[in-house]
Amino acid sequence: MPRELDEKDIAILKKLAPECGDLTCSGSGHMFHSILPPVSNHFSEDSDDFIRRISSLGNDELTYITDLIRKGEESLGCLPVEDVEALVHLIHDRLSPEVAQNVISAYESGNACEH
């Protein structure tokens, strides 16, 4: 379900992609509805760049994003598999294996891509 990004979401998005000038997807012309898809698909040059970007998150920001994922409010559906794997690895190492498994379950549930 699409959501409007709030101030906290926008702050995290801008931290991960400081070059993000506005909150509009250049491909569709629609507003972004998640944090991670634009970072992965619009701003990261490759998976290594995506990993570098998400590694800059503090544990509280990472927890916030994983909570959104578990509630179905943060889309993972259009992230490349290697970016999802990198995210899960980071969550496993920094938060917990259980939280990482929750993210895997959310990804495998097949939610639609929502930028």
How would the blueprint of this fold be written?
Elements: H1 7-16, H2 36-43, H3 47-55, H4 59-70, H5 81-94, H6 97-108
Brief summary:
The protein is an all-alpha fold and 115 residues long. It has helices spanning 7-16, 36-43, 47-55, 59-70, 81-94, 97-108.
Instruction: Based on Cα principal axes, name the global outline.
Output: globular
Give the structural class.
Answer: mainly alpha
Mean pLDDT equals 87
Based on DSSP secondary structure assignment, what is the total number of beta strands? 0
Assess the beta-strand content as a share of residues.
Answer: under 5%
Query: Order of SSEs, N→C?
Result: HHHHHH
| Contiguous uncertain segments of 5+ residues | none
How would you sum up this structure, described in words?
The protein is mainly alpha-helical and 115 residues long. The longest helix is centred in the C-terminal third of the chain and has 14 residues. Helix 3 packs parallel to helix 5 and helix 5 packs antiparallel against helix 6. It is 57% helix and 0% strand. It is globular, with a radius of gyration of 13 Å.
Key phrases:
57% helix, mainly alpha
